UniProtKB/TrEMBL annotation:
<keyword id="KW-1133">Transmembrane helix</keyword>
<comment type="similarity">
    <text>Belongs to the band 7/mec-2 family. HflK subfamily.</text>
</comment>
<dbReference type="Pfam" id="PF01145">
    <property type="entry name" value="Band_7"/>
</dbReference>
<feature type="compositionally biased region" description="Low complexity">
    <location>
        <begin position="353"/>
        <end position="374"/>
    </location>
</feature>
<dbReference type="InterPro" id="IPR001972">
    <property type="entry name" value="Stomatin_HflK_fam"/>
</dbReference>
<keyword id="KW-0472">Membrane</keyword>
<dbReference type="InterPro" id="IPR050710">
    <property type="entry name" value="Band7/mec-2_domain"/>
</dbReference>
<dbReference type="Pfam" id="PF12221">
    <property type="entry name" value="HflK_N"/>
</dbReference>
<feature type="region of interest" description="Disordered">
    <location>
        <begin position="1"/>
        <end position="29"/>
    </location>
</feature>
<comment type="subunit">
    <text>HflC and HflK may interact to form a multimeric complex.</text>
</comment>
<dbReference type="InterPro" id="IPR020980">
    <property type="entry name" value="Membrane_HflK_N"/>
</dbReference>
<protein>
    <recommendedName>
        <fullName>Protein HflK</fullName>
    </recommendedName>
</protein>
<comment type="function">
    <text>HflC and HflK could encode or regulate a protease.</text>
</comment>
<feature type="domain" description="Band 7">
    <location>
        <begin position="78"/>
        <end position="238"/>
    </location>
</feature>
<dbReference type="InterPro" id="IPR010201">
    <property type="entry name" value="HflK"/>
</dbReference>
<dbReference type="InterPro" id="IPR001107">
    <property type="entry name" value="Band_7"/>
</dbReference>
<dbReference type="GO" id="GO:0008233">
    <property type="term" value="F:peptidase activity"/>
</dbReference>
Length: 384
């Protein structure tokens, strides 16, 4: 039969455990034992005998103790927090600055301390733009961007009410100050880099007394343009300025190409003049030396030397001419010998028919005989 059938409860395992009649564990006894242990821990006295039931006062003490233990555990675990690698924590104890904590796992007094994490490594961006009045009383729309990051967490939180807003107002002030002291042409064209540097310097000068805990990493001049109503006119002016710069560059390039060639020609002409000068001086010196050699001979035999110089000169002259004039003695006629034509005719005749070469040769010898006799006679007369 089953142990739990009616009329047969002797086999109940809860009542006859270990060979004795025992019932299931009593919940009141468990709570009483736990209350005694807790009371012993907190300095209280234990209850009565094991069989007596706990009183109401002991039960309330046990409940309070459990609540306290759980509250202490929860409070202890709630105080742990983590600061990221790129951050630094500002500790506020009852609202007052109490120090900073480094990245990692830390612990705080809950409800006493408050932690403000500050990003120290990320680079932040901020822009400023608007219509501004230039030094030459023109209106221009300028847009500028800065990059910055936090270097001092305490100054960033406590120096001013809002460090980012203060930096934004300082950027507007610096930008309007620099643009107000610059001309519009410089802002739109060639002076952009100077404007950027000036804004950077002016911004650092403005924020320095406030100790914002920030550092300016970079300043970017993004855009500068005139109002839309006069944009076309300014575009034409900018195009004209660009053309001016381009023409200047082309002129400079042309000058750099022409000047070396001109200097080269000048140098060549100087060298040629020096060479010509040297040649003339050497020729004159040679003439002087030749004259000095002829002078003693002339002094010894003037007539012979004169005739010899004349003959040498005539030989030089006749060697360079193709025409000969022969004066026949005893008459008023002169014989003209076109030697160049005769030589050209001979060469032509030789190319056509070599057999016809003898007759022109005889005719040429006949024609040239008077000139030879006349020339010899003239030389003889001259020598006599």
């Amino acid at each position: 039969m089953a142990w739990n059938e009616p009329g047969n409860n002797d086999k109940d395992p809860w009542k006859n455990k270990g060979g004795k009649n025992q019932g299931p564990p009593d919940l009141d006894e468990l709570l009483n034992d736990l209350g005694k242990k807790v009371s012993g821990i907190f300095g209280g006295k234990g209850g009565g005998k094991g069989g007596s039931a706990p009183s109401g006062k002991s039960m309330s003490t046990i409940g309070i103790s459990l609540v306290l233990i759980i509250a202490i555990v929860v409070y202890a675990f709630s105080g742990f927090y983590t600061i990221k690698e790129a951050e630094k924590g500002i500790v506020l104890r009852f609202g007052q600055y109490a120090g900073t904590v480094d990245p990692g796992i830390n612990w705080k007094w809950t409800f006493v301390d408050r932690i403000i994490p500050i990003d120290m490594q990320s680079t932040r961006e901020m822009q400023s733009s608007g219509f501004m009045l230039t030094q030459d009383e023109n209106v221009v729309q300028v847009e500028m961007q800065i990059q910055y990051r936090v270097i001092d967490a305490r100054d960033y939180v406590f120096s001013v009410t809002n460090a980012d807003d203060s930096l934004n107002q300082s950027l507007d002030s610096a930008l309007r100050y620099v643009v107000g002291h610059a001309k519009m042409d410089a802002i739109l064209t060639s002076g952009r880099e100077l404007i950027r540097q000036s804004v950077w310097e002016e911004l650092e000068k403005i924020i320095k007394p406030y100790n914002l805990g920030l550092i300016i990493v970079d300043v970017n001049f993004k855009d500068a343009r005139p109002p839309n109503e006069v944009k076309d006119a300014f575009d034409d002016a900018i195009s004209a300025q660009e053309d001016e710069v381009r023409f200047l560059r082309e002129a400079e390039a042309y000058a750099r190409g022409i000047e070396p060639r001109a200097r080269g020609r000048v140098k060549r002409m100087e060298q040629e003049a020096i060479a010509y000068k040297g040649q003339i001086v050497l020729d004159a010196q040679g003439e002087v030396a030749r004259f000095e050699k002829i002078l003693p001979e002339y002094q010894a035999a003037p007539e012979v030397t004169r005739q010899r110089l004349y003959i040498a000169t005539m030989e030089k002259v006749y060697s360079n001419t193709s025409k000969v004039m022969v004066d026949v003695d005893g008459g008023n006629n002169m014989i003209y010998l076109p030697l160049d034509k005769i030589m050209q005719q001979q060469s032509t005749t030789q190319r056509i028919s070599p057999q016809s070469y003898s007759q022109p040769q005889q005719q040429s010898s006949i024609n040239s005989s008077p000139s030879t006799s006349g020339r010899s006679d003239r030389f003889d007369n001259g020598s006599n």
